[in-house]
Design goal:
Elements lengths: L20 E7 L4 E4 L6 E9 L9 E7 L5 H11 L17 E12 L5 E11 L2
Antiparallel strand pairs: 1-3, 1-5, 2-3, 3-4, 5-6
Length: 129
């Protein structure tokens, strides 16, 4: 049967964005390099899951670290340091899988395809303990 037994009258129309603040997150899988949308560079895609207790536990954040921005190496180094590693020459990204780090999340306002203003969570920084 392909019928959903759900009362959609009780389901909100949208999911509220993750509130600004600091969160403990877990790196989900191994960060990997992927082509950017315009195929002009690469993004190191880091998927994170909030592990702090509260209404946002289990929610996902994705950090797209573009290699077209000069500061990309600083951002990756901060991720590595926040995960408790001391980076040197090179780093095996598989070491990050499952590691917990603290991050700062801010709010970001943007316009969707219809021109409506929307808000989403923006991963601002990795916190080094």
């Amino acid at each position: 049967m392909s019928t959903l037994d759900v009362d959609f009258n009780d389901v909100p129309d949208s999911i509220p964005p993750i509130a600004p603040g600091e969160y403990e997150v877990e790196v989900v899988g191994v960060p990997e390099w992927k082509d950017d949308k315009k195929l002009t560079g690469k993004n190191l895609v880091v998927v994170l899951r909030i592990v702090d207790e509260g209404q946002f536990k289990g929610r996902m954040l994705t950090d797209y670290i573009s290699n077209k921005i000069d500061s990309w190496k600083v951002r990756v180094k901060r991720l590595i340091l926040a995960a408790g590693f001391k980076p040197g020459m090179g780093f095996d990204l598989t070491e990050l899988a499952g590691r917990k780090v603290r991050v700062t999340v801010t709010a970001r306002t943007y316009k969707d395809d219809s021109g409506q203003e929307q808000q989403s969570a923006n991963l601002k920084d990795y916190i080094i303990a």
